[in-house]
Design a protein that fits this description.
Blueprint (H helix, E strand, L loop, with lengths): L3 E7 L3 E14 L2 E5 L6 E4 L4 E7 L5 E13 L2 E11 L5 H10 L2 H17 L4
Parallel strand pairs: 1-7
Antiparallel strand pairs: 1-2, 2-3, 2-5, 4-6, 5-6, 6-7
Length: 124
């Protein structure tokens, strides 16, 4: 099976690094899937979007991201996000509360976090 090396990094931490079969990300131009052998690519991540990684070994990884870039060079994909959180780290109750009481930025972040939770199938 063909593999790609993926790194998911935010400003404050390295979230994940390893071998994957596919990565999908929401960019300003739409959702993109990156498979092994993809053409070189540089894209801007959608504000408050979702990134999904299918590791070669292990469960699917889903993260909410805020801003940043996606770079594809050879068989390496790097996601550099301003902010990122794994779906299983999201407290759905807190995120839902932010939807009704937060400012515009808090609401947008909460919407991305809840989208990541839904995509992952997690119930937190």
């Amino acid at each position: 099976m063909a593999e790609i090396t993926v790194q998911l990094v935010s400003v404050d931490r390295m979230l994940w690094s390893g071998q994957a079969s596919i990565l999908t990300a929401q960019t300003t131009e739409g959702e993109i899937g990156i498979l092994p052998g993809h053409e070189p690519f540089l894209g801007r991540l959608k504000d408050y979007g979702v990134v999904t990684i299918r590791p070669i070994d292990g469960e699917r990884i889903v993260a909410a991201v805020q801003g940043g870039f996606l770079s594809v060079q050879g068989n390496k994909v790097t996601v550099l996000a301003d902010f990122a959180v794994f779906a299983d780290e999201v407290n759905s109750r807190d995120a839902e509360s932010e939807l009704s009481s937060g400012d515009a930025e808090q609401k947008a972040r909460a919407m991305a976090e809840l989208a990541a939770v839904r995509r992952s199938g997690a119930n937190s």
